[in-house]
Design a protein that fits this description.
- Chains A, B: It comes from Rhizobium pisi.
- Chains A, B: This is Aldehyde dehydrogenase (NADP(+)).
- The structure is a homodimer of 499-residue chains.
- Chain A has 499 residues and is of the alpha/beta class.
- The first copy, chain A, folds into two domains: 6-252 and 458-492, 3-Layer(aba) Sandwich (Aldehyde Dehydrogenase, Chain A, domain 1), CATH 3.40.605.10; 258-436, 3-Layer(aba) Sandwich (Aldehyde Dehydrogenase, Chain A, domain 2).
- Chain A has helices at residues 27-45, 49-66, 68-78, 82-105, 155-163, 176-192, 209-216, 229-240, 262-281, 300-314, 324-338, 366-371, 392-400, 417-427, and strands at 6-10, 17-23, 112-114, 128-134, 138-141, 167-170, 200-203, 222-226, 248-251, 258-260, 293-297, 319-320, 344-348, 356-357, 360-365, 383-389, 405-411, 431-436, 475-481.
- In chain A, the strands form five sheets. A seven-stranded mixed beta sheet of chain A has the order 13-15-16-11-10-17-18, with helices on both faces. Chain A has a five-stranded parallel beta sheet with strand order 7-6-5-8-9, sandwiched between helices. A three-stranded antiparallel beta sheet of chain A has the order 3-4-19, with no helix packed on it.
- In chain A, helix 1 (27-45) crosses helix 7 (209-216), helix 2 (49-66) packs antiparallel against helix 4 (82-105) and helix 2 crosses helix 6 (176-192).
- The first copy, chain A, is globular and about 75 Å long.
- Chains A and B meet through strand 3, strand 4, helix 14, strand 18 and strand 19 of A and strand 3, strand 4, helix 14, strand 18 and strand 19 of B.
- Strand 18 of chain A pairs parallel with strand 19 (475-481) of chain B, so a sheet runs across the interface.
């Protein structure tokens, strides 16, 4: 595709190059893609709702039409198992169809009508009509850990297209073959829908140059990103230093605390420990919502939890990580925790081959956790840390010192409700989603989902990247005052959808 | 009030000190106010809707109860005439009451309910309930040009309080007496409503230290500002460099272009010229929505417009500006334009005493305007610039090179509609509000109003600072998964307002 530096895809399980070569984009190609997207923007943003919805449905169909090739390719490139990838594909096409429905419903336009009153004193009241308009072309960065649902045609792309924004994807170099298959599917849907070819483009790059140039381009009006804190903040910086700064929706780092309440621990500490182990190792821990931190008051209930978690983890095989780089970073982070003076290793999963990570569960006490802010840093992978507290007061102190999170889960029994009632109002200031007696690792794609949260979980805690609310990230309100019907956008005309 | 450096209010018309002394805040007092606001936040954000609405109504009543003292004081400090200030007071209390209604209606909570399905395969569907929660304590900067409607109890304060956010106002030093009267009114309403005293605080400072410390304080979670581009961007920088960056809603600079279409000019060029002159000099041009730029195709219609504007402006007396600093900056900016090699002076209003500014209307041609980006810089005051274009193509070129605006107005007759239809889609990318056959200087406080726009009109073009939508600036969504009723916030309970 591109004319830049070429590269090979890498098999996650072996670190070996796969046979097909991919070509990175040049800066000229970034410029060309941005120019095309800008050209496509006026028509794409004003397509009728049915046209845009049908296009999203068609993208879903085209992705399904790739068939098993997509799964096989993604398995090779990411090391993720078939079942997980089939589920992720279902989620990806389901997401596109959900946004198609959302577009058809039209609510996201948020139409408002204020009647005028020419007789009002001292000044006449103007007539005002309001709707949301699309921000403009959006740059989307594919994520390493969800090669389908947070990548080329993932949540950011689906919600930006639904909003009426052309999309340029910077594909993640960890799964170029998967990206190419999906990218072609979207391009076919664009063309078969008779849309401007600039509606969608995809660029490859194994480095940072292409992505940085994209975010700096004056025709790009918003950015969607899922990845590391360092990567996200680098994009935020570029976006804020532009002549016209633009919003960056970067989902970055979260350790998703789980608070174990005393009665729940006492009644079913072992059950919770086993369930926790299952959540921790899901997808080799490579979820944004991986439960990386446990907070509990020490005692027999916590001991039962630990025993069960230890037993479950001991039987857990090592799992292939997404890339050699992620594997290396995980090993280093685990090593840092293992050698930390205030941290003890509590349990460890089975070892594996190279690129396969063993799960590790650590523990520390509340005072050490509070004294060492580095213990809050996200470890991307299946590593967890238990923070033992001496009493409820210490639990509160730990909570008051937590950074922003995507999710916080509470394990509670009925007898814990009074204590939980005290804590929930604080927790809602810390996270986008709170869960009772579950773990955050399943992220439902639905209207009431929030997959977002205060910094550093995301760079913009007022938004979500999963669920129908995600469309609002790419919209802004415009008010039309005293417009004759013929000059109004059709949704606001007297004969339009809104009146 | 404060323990910092004291200062006197200044009479706008004379530059003389007024007799009462005010005390600036110290950094200790900033810290104390933030600590109190943080303490007030949990209870204030969870007040029942009726309690919060009644509080806003009470603030309006208390402001009215100050009576004429408020108007007299504001007249002295700002130089604005009685009629304008009485209108602004009506707008301020009307705004508070509108937000009270909005709070009672409860729509801003955006409650969402997704039913669960424990039998779903392969994984059960969780139950999700969503609501918007308040961001936290908000710092509001009073504006110099609206001593009531954009100051201590103005739009930012009203919308933040409505959202459930405690507010700390940094009062503008140009009208400390006015601020103190309103600040006491709000404090009385807080106390009479039985709310936590940290719900509202006001700080004085003649410099930047207090405001900067406020924005940097970790307990402040959002900022509302109306003022200069330099001032707004300084706050954006501080907010983005915090350990936890926060949103800044800064309304900064806009020249509010007016596009004069050929048929409208031909039919009623003189009428438009007269109406324009009236809008330009309103409030000595000290409106964010002041029409500072006219774009038109040269010809007899434009000549008629210019003749009428010239005649009207020649009869316009000079007007007292808000402060000596603003007067000086206006004179310098006018001088820069007058001596600009590509700019000609077209009309001038009457001269006045010191601190009184004369209106000036300049003209240039499109090529010069495009070649000199500095001609787009906002002149705060009653100065306008006409950009003469040779044809429609040149009008489009000028539009394509405009920065973001609060408003863009079109003067059109029916015969201009085809040409306007081409331009409107571009304009909606440039401004928050578009008007037909009017000027942007009246800003209606209502549900369909957008007083915002792309950078540099504001630092966040996805929002509005006037109208009921303004409340959304201070909210973020939170999702509650599988919560027992007793742990949910009341609005989301089965017996709550939403179900």
């Amino acid at each position: 595709m591109g004319k830049g530096k070429s590269f090979f895809a890498v098999e996650a399980a072996t670190g070996n190059s796969l046979p097909v070569e991919f070509a990175g984009a040049t800066l000229d190609e970034v410029n060309e893609a941005s120019a095309l997207a800008w050209e496509a923007f006026p028509s794409f943003s004003e397509t009728g709702l049915e046209t845009r919805a049908a296009f999203l449905d068609r993208v879903a169909l085209e992705i399904e039409a790739i068939g098993d090739d997509l799964i096989v390719r993604a398995m090779a490139e990411t090391g993720l198992p078939r079942g997980r990838l089939e589920g992720e594909r279902a989620r990806t096409v389901g997401q596109l169809r959900l946004f198609a429905k959302e577009v058809r419903a039209g609510r996201f336009q948020e139409l408002r009508f204020d009647a005028g009153d020419p007789t009002r004193k001292p000044v006449p009241k103007p007539e005002l009509r309001l709707r949301n308009v699309a921000l403009g072309p959006v740059a989307v960065f594919g994520a390493s850990n969800f090669p389908l649902a947070f990548s080329v045609a993932g949540g950011d792309t689906a919600s930006a297209l639904a909003a009426g924004c052309p999309v340029i994807v910077k594909a993640h170099s960890a799964h170029p073959g998967t990206s190419e298959l999906v990218g072609h599917a979207v391009q076919k849907a664009v063309s078969d829908s008779g849309l401007h070819p600039g509606t969608f483009a995809m660029l490859f790059d194994t480095g940072f140059e292409v992505g940085q140039a994209l975010v700096a381009d004056h025709r790009i009006k918003a950015v969607g990103f899922t990845g590391s804190r360092r990567g996200g903040m680098a994009l935020v910086k570029i976006a804020s230093e532009r002549k016209q700064p633009i919003p960056v929706y970067a989902e970055m780092s979260s350790i998703n605390p789980v608070i174990l309440f005393p009665n729940a621990l006492q009644q079913r500490g072992a059950d919770i420990g086993k369930a926790f182990a299952g959540s921790l190792v899901l997808g080799a821990g490579q979820f944004c919502t991986n439960p990386g931190l446990l907070i509990a008051i020490d005692g027999p209930g916590l001991d039962a939890f630990k025993d069960a978690a230890r037993a479950a983890l001991a039987e857990t095989p090592a799992q292939t990580m997404l890339t050699g780089g992620i594997f290396k970073a995980y090993c280093e982070a685990v090593q840092r925790l293992a050698s930390h003076s205030s941290v003890a290793e509590l349990a460890r999963g089975q070892d594996g081959k190279e690129f396969q990570a063993a799960t590790v569960l650590f523990e520390t006490d509340a005072s050490s956790f509070l004294a060492h802010p580095e213990l809050q840093e996200e470890v991307f992978g299946a590593a967890g840390l238990i923070v033992k507290c001496s009493d409820e007061r210490q639990v509160l102190e730990v909570l008051d010192n937590l950074e922003g999170q995507l999710t916080i889960a509470l394990q509670v029994d009925e007898a814990d409700h009074p204590a939980a009632q005290v804590i929930v109002p604080r927790l809602q200031q810390l996270a986008g989603r709170l869960l009772i007696n579950g773990f955050g690792t399943g992220v439902e794609v639905s209207p009431a989902m929030v997959h977002g949260g205060p910094f550093p979980a995301t760079s913009d805690g007022r938004s979500t990247s999963v669920g129908t609310l995600a469309i609002y990230r790419f919209l802004r309100p415009v008010s039309y005052q005293d417009f004759p019907d013929v000059l109004l956008p059709s949704a606001l005309q007297n004969s339009g959808t809104g009146k």
